[in-house]
Amino acid sequence: MAALQGLLVPHLLPERCYDELFLRFNLLHVPCLKILISKGLGLAIVAGSLMVKLPQVFKILGARSAVGLSLQAILLELLAITGTMVYSLANGFPFSAWGEALFLMLQTVAIGFLALHFGGRTAQGVSFLVLYFTLLCLLLSPLTPQPVVTLLQAANMPAIVISRLLQAATNYRNGHTGQLSAVTVFLLLAGSLARIFTSVQETGDPLLAVTYVVSSVCNGVIAAQLLYYWHVPAGAGARKKLE
């Protein structure tokens, strides 16, 4: 029992909740159940984010092509992910509330580089990596004032909406979803839906919660397109170059 307590307290539960659930067996203690579910769900999302975009990366590598992916959408998504990560760190939110942003950021950066590389713009891809990580270091440094960090998070919603609209428009124009990975899209949808609950429970930050609501709606649009174009091969319709 002591080992279990050391595992759960304080990482998943405050000590009072451990006592309620595991010593008094008060399994209907709603506030503590909410904390346990939120922490567990948050850590599961973080763990899942280690692989959520890898299917997309492998699909691009396997096809040696990023056809069907909007570069503008990738960059805007990266902006939104970066905003969440920087805002969460600046406000001292627990890692379980935002940790997936770190791993999604690394995978999105890789997708952006591969999109440029397979589009014949490798030099631009290298410049993109250098510029992005330089800006990230600046945003995470004490040199960046808090109002700028808050503004970056507030910019998430338009960035998410525009990025998904760009990808949806690319899918519609092409008549297929190209190298877009269904696994990645549906995992992103599931993660954003779960984050609505965990952000409310763990941070109480309305800006963060609304961001995930908007993200869920936008991810749902792309998921619906994937289902609609499910049996349409990537080569069907008008082939479009990477935007």
Largest sheet: none
The secondary structure category is mainly alpha
Radius of gyration: 20 Å
| Helical content class | over 70%
Give the N-terminus to C-terminus distance in angstroms.
Answer: 57 Å
The counted number of beta strands is: 0
Mean pLDDT value: 84
Strand content: under 5%
The number of helical segments is 12
- List low-confidence stretches: 238-243
Count of all domains: 1
- How would the global form be characterised? globular
SSE order, as H and E?
HHHHHHHHHHHH
Write a structural description:
There is one protein chain. With 243 residues, the protein is an all-alpha fold. The protein has one domain (50-228). It is built from twelve helices and no strands. The protein has helices spanning 2-8, 15-23, 30-49, 54-63, 71-90, 95-98, 100-118, 122-140, 146-154, 156-174, 182-202, 206-228.
Descriptive tags:
243 residues; mainly alpha; 74% helix; repeat; PQ-loop_rpt; transmembrane helix; transmembrane; Mannose-P-dolichol utilization defect 1 protein homolog
Q: What is the structure about, briefly put?
A:
74% of the residues lie in helices and 0% in strands. This is Mannose-P-dolichol utilization defect 1 protein homolog.
Write the layout of secondary structure elements.
Layout: H1 2-8, H2 15-23, H3 30-49, H4 54-63, H5 71-90, H6 95-98, H7 100-118, H8 122-140, H9 146-154, H10 156-174, H11 182-202, H12 206-228
